[in-house]
Amino acid sequence: MTVVRAPGRVNLIGEHTDYSDGFCLPVAIDRECRISSTPNASQTVTARSAQLDAEVIVSSTDGTPTAGSPPWGSFVGATVRVLHDRGYDIAGADLMIDSSVPAGSGLSSSSALSIALVLSLLPREAPEHADRRELARLALAAEVAATGVPGGLLDQMASLFGIAEHALLLDCRSLSVEPVPLPPELAILVIHCGLPRRLADSQYAQRRAACEAAAARIGVDALRDATPDQVDDDPIARHVVSENARVLEFVAALKVGATDELGPILLAGHASLRDDFRVSTPELDLLVDLFMDHGAIGSRLTGAGFGGCVLALATAEAAEPCLTGAMRAYELHTGRPPLGFRARAAGGAAILE
Questions:
Q1: What is the crossing angle of helices 132-147 and 73-85, to 10°?
Q2: In the structure, what pLDDT confidence band is assigned to residue 197 with cuts at 50, 70 and 90?
């Protein structure tokens, strides 16, 4: 039996910048997808979920599913197809999938699943096992094939390169990763608003197309190269340019211990996502306000928006009352019990045994 793990992630700052060659600051978290795989003698890959009462069976030669496969089975079939198209022979296997990353939360449950599937199905002697950037590309290709959503590499890189007690400054053009220590006196808090994020049904692809169109109009390769003056009259592009600046400002503050500067940067990032990029929701806005009302240093939506989660930074001493107070207030306002937890920076994806 082989066991692999791939963590989800929280993105501290740098939202909707990855597909414009920009900067991001994600953290791999202590919620993960684990897959136990056992070889079988057939030409099929069978997958079962510990959370969902369903079974997926796909051909190990081309990823074709059997009739009646549940929707999440598309990830299994897509991973087999992507690896097959890269020239790999995929052996038959029985997979047990167990994930603690909330689905549809904006915490990269899909990317964690895709990475774990790639690690489980890719032949152990494949050179990609030694190249984490190539593993990220394979997982992204599988996720795009499964969902039809043209995502960037932020989620996959965060899951594969995670380091305990560190954030990762990710340059999405060069794919360089710089570990940035997180102050032990700060806690990362996360609350799921209770509304799942479905990027295939959202305007994610439209936002990406708008960013690419803006770059072409300005005459740059990507919005990472644009100046504030060049995008001043375009709210979508303006968010990307200002968000890249916020990432670098946030990292600079972390490096010198200026934790008092972090909160305003998070709040400015949320305002930009809400007003310029227009991916927030009333529920996410409410959670940001409630976090601040209960003692957070700063807060913003995390992930692509359109539902999912809000993160906050708080002092370690204030973390528990801030989290529980915001959750209770949210349920009182909406009647919807939220899922909340303190996230801790974890190590990256790995083959455990």
A1: 130
A2: low
